Amino acid sequence: MMESKGVGKGLNELKLNEIGRVIGETSHTGVYFTAVRPPRVGEYIIVEYHDGEYVLGIVELSKIGNPLVSGNTTQVGTIAKAEAFGVGRHDYMVGYARLLAKLSKLIKEGEAETPKYPPRPAAKVFEASDDVLGAVFVKRSTDGWVRLGSLVNHPNVPVYVNVKAVVSRHLAILAITGAGKSNAVAVLVRRIVDELNGTVLIIDMHSEYGGVASKVNKVRPTVNPADLTLGEYYRLLGLEPKASKQRLYFRKAFSEIRSKFAIKKTEQFLDMLVNKVEEYLQLSERRDKSKKIPSNDRGSIADLLLKLYDLRDRYGGRVLSPEAPLELTSVIKVGHANVFQLGEVDEEVADVITSHYLRRLLDERKRNRAGSRGYPVPVLVVIEEAHVLIPRNRATLTKEVVARIAREGRKFGVGLCLVSQRPKNIDDNALSQTNNKIILKLVEPGDQKYVQSASETLSDELLELLPSLNTGEAVVLGLMTPLPALVKIDKAEWKSGGGDLPVHEIWLNSGYDDGGSEDFYTEIGI
Q1: Residue-averaged pLDDT of the chain
Q2: Half-sphere exposure of residue 276, counting CA atoms within 13 Å on the CB side?
Q3: Does 70 share its domain with 135?
Q4: Residues 490, 383: one domain?
Q5: Are 467 and 131 a contacting pair, CB within 8 Å?
Q6: Is residue 218 domain-shared with residue 238, that is, in the same domain?
Q7: Is the pTM of this model over 0.90?
Q8: Residue-range definition of the domain harbouring residue 271
């Protein structure tokens, strides 16, 4: 390292080590520099400007070369001769850094003001020490910031994220299976709930977040039949738009029952729907001229009735439960991690349950903000397996509601966190509305490019870094963090239901015995 030097602009208390110089043509967005040691991708450097300003940058590319062993070298003997001349003494190390913010304003005011002009060639490049980065990151540990992890290249520097920015500007957590998505969700949720008394709703498609925080409300996937909308019934019954007659008669029955709902018990609602369609079927079978139902509609009504019978048999009392509370605060408890455990239901039910409660939540938050009685506090909604409920090329009820929340949620305190291992299968409108990203390891090129197209700050260089990230390491971008950062996410204090099964241990401890026969065959009827 070269001699330590103080930083100007009122930052003389911070000592820096010079590690290199800017080379080649420069720009206001990034510079190449030569260094006395290999630059580490994801580490921060400081570039000195000729007017006494200092700008913080992040290393996005690192290379080592040697003029004695160039890319044109093809003979092993040539390399041996170069070694005789001391090839190692001629190594050169070059990095590329994206320029992020003026250091003085970043430390003093917490604002990331990017430079509008480039540094000069041969400008000094300094290593950003823990002290400097601590002044950037650590001071933001209060006033609605929660810890996410620490810098990969500076383990002693913790990284905090702004929860207000998470809720108001939405978040996506993306990675391949096993890279640490669930752990990242757990760290964020636990600290929001435990440290800020925040309210979080988790759409848990695999029922793995039961112990995610100290205050957890496990929610059964149930909804009161009297509270479902017409569209939600269409989804549960599988009534596609082309089933126009079945939709027509169900709408008629639904409207008639709903008009009588004020004087009927809620537990009768589903049975009343069935009875009404049975009545339509009976009317269609009459032969007198005064009948109100055409006989040629009998087949459609019978099919609708069978679907209602099936709906009642499959979901009545379990998913469609008259005991499900109508009051939203009884379902989504304030100050808790509310986990909707959907691991045992199919995608159609998961879609209806999710869209139903998200629609109600947004509507109630609107009423609350307008001064009426509604849901009393902001909520962060975490949607696991977002590519299933918010698909790119297929319509779902959840997709419609999420689009509303993405557009309007920030005004009413409803934030989104989309979690997925297949980002290219998520609706692009929804993903592009997530201004914050936690991107762990991504290998598939289509997923990488899709994520980049939905992010304004993910450069080609950072994109190339994603396949090489270790488990738990993530590129963190957006308004929730002072700067783009390469972060080692903390290990969550919880017991996940996810992850890989210890298959060999289950087999070894199963205790089953086939009787000890060496010649044991199962007759399969062939």
Answers
A1: 86
A2: 18
A3: yes
A4: yes
A5: no
A6: no
A7: no
A8: 226-315
